[in-house]
TrEMBL record, chain A:
Keywords: ATP-binding, Nucleotide-binding, Transport
Gene Ontology MF term list: ATP binding
Protein known as: ABC transporter ATP-binding protein
Superkingdom of this protein's organism: Bacteria
UniProtKB/TrEMBL annotation, chain B:
Taxonomic placement: Bacteria, Pseudomonadati, Pseudomonadota, Alphaproteobacteria, Rhodobacterales
Keywords recorded for this protein, A-Z: Cell membrane, Membrane, Peptide transport, Protein transport, Transmembrane, Transmembrane helix, Transport
Positions of the ABC transmembrane type-1 domain: 101-290
Protein name per the record: ABC transporter permease
Topology term for the membrane: Multi-pass membrane protein
Protein source organism: Ruegeria aquimaris
Automatic annotation (TrEMBL), chain C:
Record keyword Protein biosynthesis present: no
Domain of life: Bacteria
Locations listed in the record: Cell inner membrane
Topology of this chain in the membrane: Peripheral membrane protein
Chief localization: membrane
Organism whose genome encodes this protein: Ruegeria aquimaris
Pfam families: ABC_tran, oligo_HPY
UniProt protein name: ABC transporter ATP-binding protein
Length: 254, 304, 284
């Protein structure tokens, strides 16, 4: 059974002349335990799909089923948040500037009603490779990569089944990126998580995902599997451009 | 010696071992930041002195502030036994100032507790909830803003009856709208940010988001604003006193003392000037402290 | 003469726990070329860029023998002259674009304000030019983006808006701090082409700070590799993949590759000796 099932999803912002149709008629499904990638142009609505699923973009139509349950509008219940969590695109914007790492994590654990908060905070920090040293730091005392790990720890705190990842490594340098991608791979293997991952970096998607959808100006133009991506077998012209651009003649492909 | 050194090191650690430790360490670091700010310490010193003065007024004051001595009226500065002179009824101005600090503190504390909290509440709720709640709350705010402050306060006092408590209430009721506007503006930018979205995704209720996540970010600018408004608040209380609606004579309220001394401003300037200086000093102290507090409350300041 | 010459630059932050040295005595020069700076997070890339513009916030301190812009030492200038340098001769695109934009002002108003500051033209003209600039960084529907607030644009759009704004004053040197990290490859290429044109046609000098090694090796002329506040290796960009320093090799090996799938990515293991080794000179 599929974990995420999206059919004919339209998402818009505003109304009247300022209305933006950010996503139009998107359909795809993600199986339980699968890792699914979303790639595409900047501004094509990738983040918006994730926000619609989580209820942060309340104006949408179409069908979104999570684990067989249909969602509606912008309201989500606690059970939903236990099941689905999200890591935001910008680690500089996704942590409260006045809350220490400990506050962020223990509040999250408290909200999910998880007992023994103290020990859990410590084990979460260990999970994401931040020792106890970082526990009482504030975001401005952390580098971009460390912030993103805190954000991942926060998303993992409620032990979700589905993780929505919005460019989890685009703000990070390659060595930290490798650490975080390995971490995500391990977590998925350990807990059987389902990933829906946005990225503009095709090698990252190729490394992490089983299948992917390509988006352009609000529409999904193609759904392909990673084998086709590696073999550069694309149907749609935009995908071909994207592939060509990401392996453009550079010294490294020689 | 080594005991205190280790305590200091324990407090300054980079890696606290427990939540309590972290809280103490951040309090201590905040205190160090504040202490590093000479002007703020100066302000804090004045305010501490004011509190002590109010507490120990009977011990410090050389005379009874209420005892009149018409034969000894309008003595100049530095006259024997009356360093600040005496007023039109022959009462010692220094003693009246010392006792007056009690009233001033009382007014300032009450207003500072009521107005910003009310403003914060209205502003953040309006900004966060939006929609018709926002429209209604902001219309109410506009109505309050549209009236001149003293007129509105007058109306309230007229309805509630004269007296210090009612004056405080009236001033608070007229002082909250600017805070509400400010808090709302900040809430609007905070509301759209990812860290608020993130905590919504943990299933946090709006009440929790407003009190735990939005308030801490609004409070520092609010504190600065309130300390800047303190002078105005003291003066407004004085104005009400002058109209016979605030502190009632013979109470040594500073503002009332100014308005009393106003009649002799040309020949006996010190009668109005001394309480004026007192108000000025206290408002300045609040401003300096407020400025220093802003640095402490914002952990980013000076470290990034 | 070199456009920019940096000699023995240090950036220090005194803290209660001691002095943090973010940049430790680096020297390099910039001609009319594309100079890449790569390195892991926290290695001091952004601080180097900010130090050139003297934009380190106190208590941070900048120390250098010389930071010379066309022979003129920037360290000797008054704060007022420095503002002119920042406005007109050296521009910088900051790392987190959305933080650099005013959250309560429409994007269009901010661009127009920047344009009017540098050009004596009317509002209508400024508007027209702003639209053109948004178009140049391939933003679709620039009319709408002009009316949007910063939180209403996507991550990549925010970055492109910042780039458009920095190009307004037509600077001699552009310092771009991770300018394309949120852009997809095709848009990235368009943005790079714009910068490339400026370097080739107007003779601008570009300092391109990035953590994307492939991108830097393709796009830049020369690359400085930074580690713990020092330059550990300097090489021609097209030879980056033959770099010898173990740190550079480690960075290269931790990249995922489409053509070589593997279960686990390599993670950099650090050698304390790297941060002790003296800085390599980065002069052309
Ligand atoms: N709150 C909002 N109000 C109005 N328009 C919005 C809002 N959020 C997003 N948009 C618009 O929706 C479109 C899609 O944005 P989205 O953030 O989903 O792009 P994206 O695919 O994630 O791009 P990127 O890779 O640059 O992050 C953009 O045109 C953006 O301007
Ligand atoms: N105010 C400060 N006080 C103390 N240390 C600081 C301060 N600001 C920055 N640093 C330190 O300076 C070092 C260099 O930071 P910088 O921002 O230049 O890194 P970067 O190479 O740009 O990394 P990234 O790729 O994450 O942006 C970091 O180790 C950081 O911890
Ligand atoms: Mg996005
Ligand atoms: Mg940086």
């Amino acid at each position: 059974m599929s974990m995420i099932e999206i059919e004919g999803l339209n998402v818009w912002f505003g109304h009247g002349p300022d209305r933006v149709d950010a996503v139009r008629g998107a359909s795809f499904s993600v199986a339980r335990g699968e890792s699914f990638g979303l790639v595409g142009e900047s501004g094509s609505g990738k983040s918006t799909i994730l926000r619609a699923i989580t209820g942060l973009a309340p104006d949408w139509s179409g069908r979104v089923d999570i684990d067989g349950q249909a969602l509606a509008g912008g309201k989500r219940d606690r059970a939903f948040f236990r099941k689905v969590q999200m890591v935001f695109q910008d680690p500089y914007a996704s942590l409260h500037p006045r809350h220490s790492v400990d506050q962020v994590l223990s509040e999250t654990l408290h909200l999910h009603g998880i007992p023994d908060i103290d020990a859990r905070v410590r084990s979460l920090l260990d999970d994401v490779g931040l020792g106890g040293r970082f526990r009482f730091r504030y975001p401005h005392q952390l580098s971009g990569g460390q912030r993103q790990r805190v954000a991942i720890a926060r998303a993992l705190a409620g032990e979700p089944e589905i993780l929505l990842l919005d460019e989890p490594t685009s703000a990070l340098d390659v060595s930290v990126q490798a650490e975080i991608l390995n971490l995500l791979t391990d977590l998925r293997a350990e807990h059987g998580l389902t990933y829906l991952m946005v990225s503009h970096d095709l090698p990252v998607i190729g490394h992490m995902c089983d299948r992917l959808a390509v988006m352009k100006s609000g529409e999904i133009v193609e759904v392909m599997d990673v084998g086709a991506l590696r073999a550069m077998r694309a149907e749609h012209e935009y995908t071909r451009d994207l592939l060509a651009a990401s392996v453009a003649p550079g010294p490294h492909s020689a | 010696m080594s005991e205190t050194l280790t305590l200091r090191q324990w407090l300054l650690t980079d890696e606290p071992t427990s939540r309590r430790h972290a809280r103490l360490a951040s309090l201590y670091k905040g205190w160090l930041t504040l202490r590093g700010n000479t002007m703020a310490m100066f302000g804090l010193g004045i305010l501490v002195a004011l509190v002590l003065m109010a507490l120990f007024a009977p011990l410090i004051a050389p005379h009874d502030p209420y005892v009149q001595n018409l034969g000894n009226r309008l003595q100049p500065l530095g006259s024997p036994g009356h360093p600040f002179g005496t007023d039109s009824l022959g009462r010692d101005i220094l003693s009246r100032l010392i006792y007056g600090s009690r009233i001033t503190l009382y007014i300032v504390t009450l207003v500072a507790l009521i107005a910003p909290v009310a403003g914060l509440l209205v502003g953040t709720v309006a900004g966060y909830v939006g929609g018709w709640v926002d429209v209604i709350l902001m219309r109410v705010t506009d109505i309050f803003l549209a009236f001149p402050r003293l007129v509105l306060a007058l109306a309230f006092v007229a309805a509630l009856g004269a007296g210090i408590e009612n004056a405080v209430l009236a001033i608070s009721l007229t002082a909250w709208p600017p805070y509400a506007r400010m808090a709302r503006a900040e809430t609007l930018t905070i509301r759209a940010s990812d860290y608020i979205s993130a905590v919504r995704l943990q299933g946090a209720s709006p009440v929790r988001i407003i009190t735990r996540h939005i308030w801490p970010l609004c409070i520092s600018s609010l504190i600065v604003r309130v300390t800047l408004d303190m002078a105005g608040i003291i003066l407004a209380a004085a104005g009400l006193g002058f109209l016979g609606l605030g502190a009632q004579p013979p109470s040594p309220e500073w503002g009332a003392m100014i308005s009393e001394g106003r009649r002799f401003i040309l020949d006996h300037w010190w009668v109005a000037t001394m309480p004026g200086l007192a108000i000025f000093t206290v408002s300045l102290a609040f401003n300096l402290l407020g400025d220093g507090l802003r640095d402490v409350l914002d952990p980013k300041e000076g470290s990034q | 003469m070199n456009l920019l010459d940096v000699e023995n630059l240090w950036v220090k932050f005194p803290t209660r726990q001691g002095v943090v040295e973010a940049v430790r005595g680096i020297s390099f020069s910039l001609g009319r070329e594309r100079l890449g700076i790569v390195g892991e997070s926290g290695s001091g890339k952004s601080m180097t860029g900010r130090a050139i513009l003297r934009l380190i916030r106190p208590p941070g301190m900048i120390e250098a023998d010389r930071i010379a812009l066309e022979g003129q030492n920037l360290l000797d200038l008054s704060e007022k002259d420095m503002r002119t340098v920042r406005g007109e001769r050296i521009s910088m695109v900051m790392q987190d674009p959305k933080f650099s934009l005013n959250p309560v002002m429409r994007v269009g108003d901010q661009i127009m304000e920047a344009y009017l500051l540098h050009n004596k033209v009317g509002k209508a003209e400024a508007r027209k030019r702003s639209l053109e600039m948004l178009d140049a960084v391939s933003i679709r529907d620039p009319e709408r983006v002009m009316r949007a607030y910063p939180h209403e644009v996507s991550g990549g759009m925010g970055q492109r808006i910042m780039i458009a704004m920095m190009l307004i004053p037509n600077p001699q040197i552009l310092i771009a701090d991770e300018p394309t990290s949120a852009l997809d490859v095709s848009v990235q290429r368009q943005v790079l082409n714009i910068m490339d044109d400026l370097v080739k046609q107007r003779g601008m000098g570009l300092i391109f700070i990035s953590h994307d090694l492939n991108l830097v090796s393709e796009f830049c002329d020369r690359v400085l590799i930074m580690y713990a506040g020092r330059i550990v290796e300097v090489c021609d960009a097209d030879k980056l993949h033959q770099a010898t320093h173990p740190y550079t090799r480690g960075l290269l090996n931790s990249l995922p590759r489409l053509d070589q799938p593997r279960a686990k990515l390599e993670v950099l293991s650090r050698d304390p000796a790297w941060s002790e080794a003296p800085s390599v000179g980065g002069r052309a």
